[in-house]
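Both lines are quoted verbatim for reference:

——
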Amino acid sequence: MRPLRLAFLWHFHQPDYRVDTHLRLPWVRYHAVKDYAWLPATLHAAGIRSTINIVPSLLDQLEAYEKGAVDPWFVHVAPAEWTSEERHAIISRHIVLSSHMMHITTWHSTLIETAHSAPESLSTDDIIDLVVLYNLAWTSPSLRRENSTVRSLMSKERGFLWTDLEAIQHITRRACADVVPAIQRYATSAGSVSTTPYHHPILPLLINSDVAREAVTTMEVPHPAITFADDAEQHVRRAISRHTDLFATPPVGMWPAEGSISNDAADMFARCGLQWIASDEVVLRNSLGENVWPTAAMYPWRVPTKSGEVTLFARDRELSDAIGFSYADRDPKRAAEDFVRLLEERRRAILAHDGEEALDDAVISIILDGENCWEFYRNNGEDFLLALGESLSKGAYELVTFDDVVQEQRRHTLPNIVAGSWIDGTFGVWIGSPTKNLAWSLLRRARQAVRDSGHETEFDVDRILGTEASDWFWWYDERHVAPNSSEFDDLFRSRLRAMFAEAAVDVPLECTLPLPQQTTTMTSDSVHRIAVTFGSAAMHTADPLIRYVTLESSEGWQRIGFELARLPVGNEQITIVVTSTDDLERTVRINADGGQWWTPLHDEGSEWRDPHTFAIYVHNAHLWRLAIEEERADGAIRVSSLAITP
């Protein structure tokens, strides 16, 4: 039997957190110690040939750590010199972890619970324990096996010393220097490496923001349009140069940031000498329109442009998302078996629709985030990846990279691209709302001011390009709320102010105030509020955890809020299965560790609206059905169900 070819791509990216000689947030460092070197080594051990895609601005941040950069999560001041404010800051920074990462020891769980409920009761020794255990939680399985210092610290439950804290922080910094060599070793022996435009911009929007209307004709876009094609090309060419310096040869292809492509972007990639790009299958379907067929996304596509041709690979959404979102809580072997089951469905579809010879041309593209999903897997996903490699080795599969097959003749030609991204085939996450459009308009004004000033060559071009990154606009989307989201707004506005200052132009008032405060999305008069009852509504439920469910609607989105009477403690937990009219299920879980949720749609988000209200952002539906379960401290379970409509 002809083998079915699979091409994995794992994407490494973090926003640019740099401000002068330090980084505002620590996630580059922590993912370096947990994921960036570990994943290539684990893929090699599992026999999974893949592409590692790493964003140049992430490489710059890793290098900054190597040269001594710090972030606020580094604890430098000795305990005897901590002020009350410093103690509070240290505690608050070291308690946000996923549940699978949290349980280093029982003592660690106790410390986190105490830090949430009574932080003032933590002693100095407790805080040192909290920080050491937090840093240990971010270590990879391989580091726990191979590093003697980490092994020694992992064997202790409590009673860590200041020298232990210094030692584990040194290890996390040293990990940043190990990333590039680990990727180089993997690319040489078992895979390849690719890149992304330098600062991870949404390239089609940077070329011409009006392109957002190709997929959504009614989308509100900034006026005048953003037209920074020269900057867009700099992102591409500088990424090629950075990649070449580190990996000795130019990249053969690129994963465009967020899989964002357009006709003009494809032409730019071809003009810069790139041979392949990739996006999501929904972009391919939109582009083919009536000419689409069931197996279309299982083939590479020839895309002709004015500057030459480029090959387009279409990301298999179900397979990619199964690893990224669905398999984390499953038994690793069963998850791997399910993945193979899905692969066999694709093989049968190709055989039925296109014939066996078509397997010679087919490539199933599995493309996903290579860092964030693993914190939701037990053992950081290592057991799953090893099981996956074993399962694939037993079947008729050939693992390839996009570099391997890019020179082959293409069976199919795509003459036109309907511009879009891997999220719903649109750009709605980054543009189209009042806040996001305001951010784009301010960027356009600042960029034009620098150009008009004649000082552009004197201004650090990297700082300009960094202000065009996708991340700023991502975090202005109302569905993407995180504990540090205000940091992104502050960082973005500070970059804009620097550009206006360089151009000797007065800073607009809009740059001095948080952008979300200057626009409105949800209105309070649209709130629908339903009380949650357990059993008869005429009876009072003693000491409930959840009191109300609310629903608000705006611009194609809805916010469902869960108002708590009090926060769960100990092993108490609220589980809510939220089902829309199309029978898609989302699951919300609220416990002493915080709020978590799972959704099959990646552009949906969640946030704590206030200390007692957890909210999720979902696509509009006419009716929502909720199944609510409260698990009490004594093990008793209460259940309730309700329906809520706009």
In short: Confidence is low (pLDDT under 50) at residues 520-525, 536-540. The domain at 4-12+191-413 is CATH 3.20.110.10 (7-stranded beta/alpha barrel). DSSP finds 22 helices and 22 strands in the chain. Residues 162-189 form the longest helix (28 residues).
